[in-house]
């Protein structure tokens, strides 16, 4: 774990730490926690590395790398016995009561624990408490070491040198783990790609720290991280970036957004990569018009609000362009009316919904899965929508492309739900396989449409599937109309009762078709043995903690299987009913108060789901707490509703 | 083949009240498009919600009848996706300056190459005559229980302040003059705002056709003096002719002053026009050099077998660990 004040380089140092571990051949799972604040408040980054696949975080900390006193006060007691704390000895005498950003209740509980052990309230006291529990302490005199680096580079300004403290903390941790310093330096080079001098100074800092640690603490920490040989190609991905790349691949060419955490990073990534290189094989006749154009583009528009974001994206969809907008709860609330218009006019549009803790502004930078029901019912009246939810970054990648395919094939809005935990997690993945991705535009027509029936085109013509030919607005040779009012097949207003029924049936029928056509493998995942003591029901990013927890339980001989719902609407009722009716004990696991998926599942399947593990303190589930909760269900000692509360 | 006026008419029953100023605007739009000899499937009329919002259904081009107040972002999405289309926005005054005011301002900042015609009738027609944002303080139109308690927004002033590069006003019953203004607005390079004085005989019993005709505003000889007059007939020139700060400031200041004239002498015509401001399309093109020649709507995204064309492997490789 690496912590520090927001704006002091926590992110960069964690990124370097995680990258280096990943380059060293380890699987990495990193999670960021931060306040809704720009500078000063405490933030931390938890990085878990393992030679085996890992998909979630744990609560206990093996090594705490700090460069301010707040990190030590907040996290020293999370470090497990025989773990390590790296800290700045200059801060030893800092007092708990003088740290303004620690909440009153946190301070009080720390003071209590310190005084029970007869200790005072300085950083040294809390370190002493940790030491008594068996934690190794590693003071690193950052400033002295930095001065050595400064001398080499002729840099004497302390303030500019101190900007490297974060990297010093990382280097100290790695030195203690006898990690290959050349891999670390390589990671530094990659992270500071565009700043040569900064990269070199930080690399020099690594050397200084390594020789200090080797001299002073050599071999004193029991753990090492030797490099591992890896046989597969891996990438190091962050959630927002995963969505961005997948959107370009999917052919999204208009993205609109209004800034909101944790969604905007994706749009900013897209804007930075707005010019899209196209695969332009010479000699392919159908691509003739592309012979002269090597690049396409995605237009990213920062709109005046989310109402404009959704309606502008719909405009793009009307014109035949794959369009999307990315937002979070407050923004999605504003999109309700626009979404209904898209449903009514059968416009493909994708909303990437990054859930965060609500209601209202809630906890803007914290995690929750509280918007499932909202996504199912956003907007007034009834219209078809497809709602899918991804569980990890690999799913996020492929689901992003699918969202656009569904939108065009079924001519309807698609809500792709992800969340803060996925958006802000950095993980190693096997290289994503682009060859697996196919684009399906359904019956979209662009360019020109030849017809003998006059120019007025029946855009909303009845068909068996409810899906009608869709020339983009602007297609030559035809015209038609669109309106949020109920309309006839040309798109003109109609309040005729017979027409109303025909049109409602037409639109809603598309969901039945989607339900029939979408393969089961895109709707659900089922993990574990057919027969198990417990069947976990869940959705979204709890997937990682669940898989890790059931691995642990299996090692103890407790069999747990896991049904992950990915397509929330249309709901895979038949399959889910089959699995749940065979289950011995169903436990619903969700990051919200009421167990929204359980409620939806009960509504669809009529199978009662009484047992729930829920969490709504804004911090993602750790696999330990989930493991303990599931175990208590297996042993029959749990109440029907367990509320998890870990995390700081 | 020249486009005839009848080619632009649909057979949808028009349900505006008899005598509504909207008819004049509809005719002017159809005449302008016919005279410009547009290709109907290259034109998109985008409207909001209100009596005015029904207009697209009466015109045989693409018509998009959107949501109350949201016509501008809808239209912007269409235009950005396919800048080759001729996009004409039409909406009510409540739609544009009440519920849609945020979009009104921010669309001015973008300056997409579109036209925007506002049916300025001082009331919320379709919801039975409540005060619209352009109704003056203290006015009590027919269906208001009490006189209007809010001040009016000045649409022209707001448009100038928001960055519209063409700001004009027309009168619904001077159809020929209005038609010319519409042509100018469509031909203007940039976002053109055209406020149209639109009598609503059903709910606005103050700013009526008779009022604008000056039937109660007699000269000494007893002849009615119309309350609207044409800017161009007074030698007013709102066009920015050279791209200097001084010229632009002068023309803006002149338009701002003019925008306050309302009532017994109400100017119609072009208040301000500046084609030197880069359009949003030009700004996009300066960042994405193939934007104009190969805009989103023209871009192929996949081969016929569904293989994507975007080469994102490079982006993935940047994140690769080996
Ligand atoms: C979100 C929303 N709120 C309210 C309405 C009800 N509504 C329909 S038309 C209208 C006012 C129309 O006035 P204006 O925009 O001036 O158009 P006009 O009818 O005068 O042409 C309102 C408030 C609506 N359609 N949508
Ligand atoms: S209410 Fe007024 S604006 Fe609406 S159609 Fe009737 S006259 Fe025209
Ligand atoms: Mg009005």
Chain pair sharing the greatest interface: A-B, 90 and 69 residues
- Assign the CATH architecture of the largest domain in chain A: 3-Layer(aba) Sandwich
CATH domain class name of the largest domain in chain A: Alpha Beta
What name does CATH use for the topology of chain B?
Answer: Rossmann fold
Fraction in beta strands of chain B: 15-25%
Q: Which term fits the overall shape of chain B?
A: globular
Give the averaged pLDDT of chain B, no decimals: 97
Task: Tell me the Rg of chain A in angstroms.
Answer: 27 Å
CATH class of chain B: Alpha Beta
Rg calculated over all Cα atoms of chain B: 22 Å
Largest sheet of chain B: 8 strands, mixed
Structural class of chain A: alpha/beta
Helix content of chain B: 25-40%
Tell me what the structure shows.
- The complex is a heterodimer of chains A (648) and B (322).
- In chain A, helix 7 (165-176) crosses helix 9 and helix 10 packs across helix 11 (264-272).
- Chain A is α/β, with parallel strands linked by helices.
- Chain A has 4 domains: 2-217, 3-Layer(aba) Sandwich (Pyruvate-ferredoxin Oxidoreductase, domain 3), CATH 3.40.920.10; 237-436, Rossmann fold (3-Layer(aba) Sandwich); 443-518, no CATH class; 523-644, 3-Layer(aba) Sandwich (Rossmann fold).
- Chain A has 23 helices and 26 strands.
- In chain A, the strands form 5 sheets. Chain A has an 8-stranded mixed beta sheet, sandwiched between helices. In chain A, strands 11-8-12-13-15-14-23 form a 7-stranded mixed beta sheet, with helices on both faces.
- Chain B has one domain: 3-Layer(aba) Sandwich (Rossmann fold).
- Chain B has helices spanning 21-35, 71-81, 93-99, 101-110, 155-162, 175-187, 209-213, 245-259, 280-287, 313-318; strands at 43-47, 62-65, 86-92, 115-120, 123-124, 130-131, 166-171, 192-197, 228-230, 266-273.
- Chain B starts with 20 loop residues before the first helix and ends with a helix.
- The mean pLDDT of chain B is 97.
- The chains are: A alpha/beta (648), B alpha/beta (322).
- At the A-B interface, helix 1, strand 7, helix 10, strand 8 and strand 9 of A face strand 2, helix 2, helix 4 and helix 10 of B.
- Strand 19 (481-483) of chain A pairs parallel with strand 2 of chain B, so a sheet runs across the interface.
- Magnesium ion is lined by residues 50, 92-94, 119, 121, 123-125, 132 of chain B.
